[in-house]
Amino acid sequence: MTAYVPGITETDLKKIVLAIQNLAAGRSNAVGTVTLATGATTTIVSTPNCTSGSTPILTPASVNAATDLGNGTLYVSTVANGSFTITHANSATTGRTFLWAVLG
After folding, report:
1. Residue 69: helix, strand or coil by DSSP?
2. Is residue 12 part of a domain?
3. Sheet with 31-35: strands ordered across
4. CA 75, 34, 49, 4 torsion: positive or negative?
5. Please, which residues have CB within 8 angstroms of residue 89's CB and are 6 or more apart in sequence?
6. Residue 90, in any domain of the structure
7. How many domains does the chain fold into?
8. In-domain check, residue 71
9. Cα(87)–Cα(45) distance, rounded to whole angstroms?
10. What confidence tens digit (pLDDT) does each residue in 3-36 have?
11. Which of 4, 53, 57, 73 has the fewest CB atoms within 10 Å distance of its CB?
């Protein structure tokens, strides 16, 4: 769910109120989905809302993703400006899809 973001010079009060209502309703531009790369040990998630001080949160959105998480072979290994990296098992298993949110 994306949130409306008014420009820095916005003067239309209705647009500013809409942005506040979006935030209060839990909408965010810092969320998405990622499917882990097959045959690799890392997957990079690019998102402009991520900074080196952010905290990415992952939630499995498929059985294969839940299995990978349950095996203890998955973690966020790097957080940088514009992206974060997920380190995981090198697997040919497809469909390891996660929902993610970046805080901070």
Report:
1. helix
2. no
3. 31-35, 97-103, 55-60
4. negative
5. 41, 68, 71, 73, 74
6. yes
7. 1
8. yes
9. 11
10. 777 888 988 888 888 878 877 877 777 899 999 9
11. 53
Q: State which residues form the domain around 69.
A: 30-103
Count of residues in the chain: 104
Question: Does residue 7 lie within any of the structural domains?
Answer: no
Secondary structure letter of residue 57 according to DSSP:
E
Amino acid occupying residue 95: G
Instruction: Locate 104 and state its tokens.
Output: 């901070």
Using alpha carbons, select from 56, 49, 1 the residue that is nearest to residue 25. 1
The pLDDT assigned to 4 comes to: 79
Q: Identify residue 89 by its one-letter amino acid code.
A: A
Structure tokens at 82: 């514009």
Q: What is the pTM of this model?
A: 0.82
Cα–Cα separations (whole angstroms), residue 103 to 14, 58, 62: 27, 11, 23
